[in-house]
Design goal:
Blueprint (H helix, E strand, L loop, with lengths): L6 H13 L2 E6 L5 H21 L5 E6 L17 E2 L4 H10 L2 E5 L9 H8 L4 E5 L10 E4 L6 H10 L7 H14 L10 H13 L3 H9 L4 H13 L1 E4 L4 E6 L1 H6 L22 E8 L9 E8 L6 H8 L2 E2 L3 E7 L2 H15 L4
Helix pairs in contact: 2-5, 2-6, 5-6, 6-7, 6-8
The chain binds guanosine-5'-monophosphate and manganese (II) ion.
């Protein structure tokens, strides 16, 4: 069931929001629908609140550590996002001058890379709103609800405690994150209150079918072909472990003109196979300038009561949710695969 948000935290957050002059909203690296949805909803809601209350707040920024995928570029106010990687100098100044930081959809500063160091260097109050397990103790006010489907759901509940109402653009952002973080209501979505939230957003005027289309049906032909290639040529099955493994090298990605976000959702596809319960996807990123090793981005998915966050953390220093986790590996794709295959029998349920 839906938890009650802590009233004293709400009051503290409200005071910070009322007295802030410069606000920065942060969300995680490789922002997904929930990261974008919650931070853009917060951005739009704060601006509405500033107008309604004639607050003295001078500016509000959303900072993402790196670029967001093209399939989320249509989102209201997305064009106003300050992408750290593209404009670090300006972002550093904005972060340092802020008197309120709001962190959405990540549980520790490390999850936003170098931006996390900058955030910690400014001792201003911080509000954390998130649904990942085990939040680090870095915020002044923490709303941490891992039992909720999405940060967008939590943000919606936060807004409902305050007097500024959600408008159509805000509702559109919130629905996007709720939809993407539940795989269009295929998982983490048994709480009936979610459907009351959706009913309310539809009453406000969202076009949920259009949002689905904007997110899931606007891909490039290259991306769709890349998915086909990965499934046809690159998927390895380990039937005794109910496991599927896909790897894609940088060279393979370049053959399909890879753009950020192009492999989003690929890791879920092998779970469509009836007796596959675990899916692993490894994507090679070339070495950053000045570094020697590629970075392997790891994605782990599972079904039911088969946690992937434990081995994501213990083998690769990553983490995440029970059924959806990730991490980074510094080394070659082959090394990442070997490390995983060596450790895996200890962690995966043999059934
Ligand atoms: P994805 O496979 O979509 O990149 O990540 C799935 C989930 O795993 C994310 O929502 C996030 O919770 C978690 N995750 C991904 N990468 C990392 C990581 O490097 N560290 C931690 N702690 N969690 C991660
Ligand atoms: Mn999320």
């Amino acid at each position: 069931m839906t938890p009650k948000l802590d009233q004293s935290n709400i009051s503290k957050a409200e005071q910070f929001l009322t007295s802030a002059n410069r606000i920065v909203i942060f969300t995680h690296m490789a922002p997904d629908g929930d990261a974008m949805g919650s931070s853009l909803a917060m951005f739009l809601w704060i601006q509405k609140r500033i107008n309604e209350h004639s607050l003295k707040t001078q500016n509000v920024h959303v900072i993402t550590p790196n670029a967001f995928p093209a399939f989320l570029a249509w989102m209201p106010a997305a064009e106003q996002i300050l992408i750290y990687e593209n404009n670090a100098e300006k972002a550093d100044a904005v972060i340092a001058e802020a008197d309120l930081h709001i962190c959405l959809d990540f549980n520790e500063p490390k999850r936003i890379g170098v931006v996390g160091d900058k955030l910690l260097q400014n001792p201003c109050p911080k509000i954390l709103i998130d649904h990942h397990l085990n939040p680090a103790d870095f915020a002044t006010v923490t709303f941490s609800h891992p039992e909720l489907s999405s940060t967008c759901e939590l943000t919606y509940r936060f807004f409902n405690h305050l007097d500024t109402k959600i408008d159509l653009n805000i509702a559109t952002c919130l629905y996007t994150g709720l939809m993407t973080d539940t795989g269009n209501f295929a998982f983490n979505s048994n709480n009936p209150d979610i459907y009351e939230m959706i009913a309310e957003l539809v009453r406000i005027g969202i076009d949920k079918d259009a949002i689905y289309n904007a997110v899931f049906n606007q891909y490039s032909a290259d991306r769709v072909r890349l998915m086909g290639y990965a499934l046809y040529k690159k998927m390895q099955l380990f039937p005794e472990f109910h496991l599927a493994l896909i790897t894609l090298s940088d060279k393979e990605l370049q053959q399909f003109n890879y753009k950020i976000g192009d492999t989003e959702g690929l890791v879920n596809m092998p779970l469509q196979i009836s007796d596959v319960y675990y899916s692993v996807f490894m994507r090679e990123q070339p070495p950053k300038p000045g570094t020697l090793h590629p970075v392997i981005k790891l994605s782990f998915r599972s079904q039911g009561d088969r946690p992937v966050n434990i081995f994501a953390n213990e083998i690769f220093g990553g983490g995440g949710h029970k059924n959806a986790s990730g991490g980074d590996f510094y080394g070659s794709l082959g090394q990442a695969v070997r490390r995983f295959l060596k450790a895996m029998p200890k962690y995966l349920l043999k059934e």
